[in-house]
Amino acid sequence: MNKTKVVFNAEKLETSCELMRALAHPLRLRILEFIDRNGTINVNKIYHSLKIEQSITSQHLKIMRLAGVIDAYREGKFVHYSINYDVVKRAEIAVNNFLAKSA
Amino acid sequence: MNKTKVVFNAEKLETSCELMRALAHPLRLRILEFIDRNGTINVNKIYHSLKIEQSITSQHLKIMRLAGVIDAYREGKFVHYSINYDVVKRAEIAVNNFLAKSA
DNA sequence: TTCAAATATTAAATTTTTTTAATATTTAAT
DNA sequence: ATTAAATATTAAAAAAATTTAATATTTGAA
Known about the structure:
Two copies of one chain form a homodimer. Chain A is α+β, with helices and mostly antiparallel strands and 103 residues long. Chain A has helices spanning 10-23, 26-38, 43-50, 54-66, 85-96, and strands at 40-42, 70-75, 78-83. Chain A has a single domain (10-96), classed as Orthogonal Bundle (Arc Repressor Mutant, subunit A), CATH 1.10.10. Helices cover 58% and strands 15% of the residues of chain A. A three-stranded antiparallel beta sheet of chain A has the order 1-3-2. In chain A, strand 2 (70-75) and strand 3 (78-83) form a beta hairpin. Chain A is elongated, with a radius of gyration of 16 Å. Chain A starts with 9 loop residues before the first helix and ends in a 7-residue tail after the last helix. The A-B interface holds A 1-6, 8, 13-14, 16-17, 20-21, 23-26, 29-30, 32-33, 36-37, 39, 82-83, 85-86, 88-89, 91-92, 95-96, 98-100, 102-103 and B 1-6, 8, 13-14, 16-17, 20-21, 23-26, 29-30, 32-33, 36-37, 39, 82-83, 85-86, 88-89, 91-92, 95-96, 98-100, 102-103. The structure holds a DNA duplex (30 and 30 nucleotides).
């Protein structure tokens, strides 16, 4: 019931959209939550714990990595993933841009 | 670099996901922004201003209405849409749940 | 070096989402 | 009553996302 008068240029909109899309999938949210819970964790632990296919896990991790939502680094045979909270923060801000001071 | 220890149950995750999906589309974001800008507006104005098909507009409006992101009321031949900021707020909180105090 | 474990990539199959295009509904005016 | 404007619904077509299943890459260990 309260106007926002958001200034939301095309670029920002694109970025917001891409970020949200990278998050808006049930499996990805589960993976993300799991990583969040564990701080830093490797792919094996992720897909064993969540009981999802290795390949699927890898593919979803890639989508989120490309969106910048998670970071990865290799240590020997293992690749460790962690959340890039700065970028998740940006997703939040994107949504926030639609918000009134109300509610 | 900062753990969150979010408590994020399955239900919340489902809800968050659905909300984000309802937002994560370029056209829907454009429509949403336009409604936000105008406070309350009818379908005609939306699709004429944004130069999108009437049918497409209607369908995207429906998706957002079902997700609760926007509200509608009819006044004669016109249907007026407005943003449900409370629900958008919930989308923001959903994303926020992944956030550390960092950043 | 060969082998196996961990992860990534790929292509095809499947599923879901989106668009197109046509038709239906609702309401106000004639 | 008919008609026209505003919006919604629907079904089929098209496009995009996801899964499956197989293969490739990387690395450490035997």
